[in-house]
Amino acid sequence: MKQKEQQKVSDKFFKKSGLVLYFNIFDFQEVVELLREKYKIAKTYEEVSKSDKFTFSIYFDNELNFLADKLFYTMSGYIRQHGELPKDFLKVENVFREDLNSKFEEGFHTTISELFHKYHISAENFRYAFVKNLDNGDVNLHSFFIEDLNKAKTITNENLNRYFIGFSGHRHNLDGNKESVHFNPRIFETTILQPKFYPLGRFPSNPGFELSFMQQVAVNLALNDKNDIRSVNGPPGTGKTTLLKDIFADLVVQQTAEIVQLSDKRIKGSLVYWKDFKLGVLPHSISDKNIVVTSSNNGAVQNIVKELPKKETIAGDFQKLLDEADYFKEISNSKLTGEGFGQNREIKSELLHEENWGVFSLEGGASTNMNKLLLTIEAIEKDLEDHDQANTGESVYQEFSRLYAELKIERDKMQDYSGKMYALRKLKTKHKEEVFAFEQEEKRNEQI
């Protein structure tokens, strides 16, 4: 009743209210360390925020009747208690639910006292909260990933196997610190940082701020190395997103180079999806350069995806050129709604702002995001139909081919210079060694 008065809940809505108790609260890092020790996993740098978890929660209605269906037993709590992963966690949770339900039917006070005693309840490891509406309260869900991961383990796939087992091939020393005892300049001079491995595309950010040494190493490896799985680690603010931008930019340039070489720029339908309707299939040389940004951290993905199309990320020299290119700028800055079906289908747009330079990246996942993504594709398709690109695009293809060829020639020249400079450095080193050997030989002859 005290909570009813404090929360200002009417008699009508109080009937839907209840109480939730959180037992055995702990630092999740305990579970992380336990699993690391059990499975011999070495510590690695991760961008994770520490948080507290509860072992289980139980709910009661406004008359303190136990609500068995709302009980939630966390897997992390189970692991902390038992030191291992459960084989069938839902079965464990149901047994616990039935046991508590039976005990609460026998007596509320006795069962609560027993729980408080068993879990050594204190101000540090216990919380409770008043729930205004039990029907619309927060829903506790177990991880969706466990079933997917178990399924993935049964699939024979090279990339999945590498993800689960780890990389077992030859590792290269990429220590670029001159002060380090492991400093390995040769790998940068002879392979990674040779001009021929530099991308021909670059994100149009400020050209006065080039990539740092190790950022460029990461970009060149990502675009040229044969390994399909790579990881770039670093604390916040160290430039991971910056190097990703240049990788994305070069992949777009590579896709464009493939498109330009197509004799027929229209992709004809070949894959039947319903009756006589067919989908066009992109050539593999184009589709294998598509980009999907994924992460277990939604915020990390959102930051990248939302930042890419922002005007503020583009250098002033390039903004006018991007406006002229019109990378579906109006669509990117508009709220889109779809009305009707088939031939009566219409996409309406309402200009909200002009923060974006174009449609370069879109967020997926949630249904609202997917709806926006599909509407954007529809709007782009309509825009392309209204402006026949096949008839007006030849000059664009030719201009791209010309610039691409010029840049490639320039890179080839730099590669030639680099090769000659490397050969000269080797000769210089050899000359020094031979001069030193000659001087030593002369000294020995003088002593004789």
From TrEMBL:
Instruction: State the source organism's domain of life.
Output: Bacteria
Q: Which InterPro entries match?
A: Coronavir_polyprotein_1ab, DNA2/NAM7_AAA_11, P-loop_NTPase
The answer, when asked if Nucleotide-binding is one of the entry's keywords, is: yes
Q: Where is the DNA2/NAM7 helicase helicase domain?
A: 215-423
Enumerate the UniProt keywords alphabetically: ATP-binding, Nucleotide-binding
Any single GO molecular-function term of the entry would be: DNA helicase activity
Query: What is a single Pfam family found in this protein's UniProt entry?
Result: AAA_11
Is Nucleotide-binding among the key words of this record? yes
Q: What is this protein called?
A: AAA domain-containing protein
What species was this sequence derived from? Paenibacillus polymyxa (Bacillus polymyxa)
Q: Give the source lineage, highest ranks first.
A: Bacteria, Bacillati, Bacillota, Bacilli, Bacillales
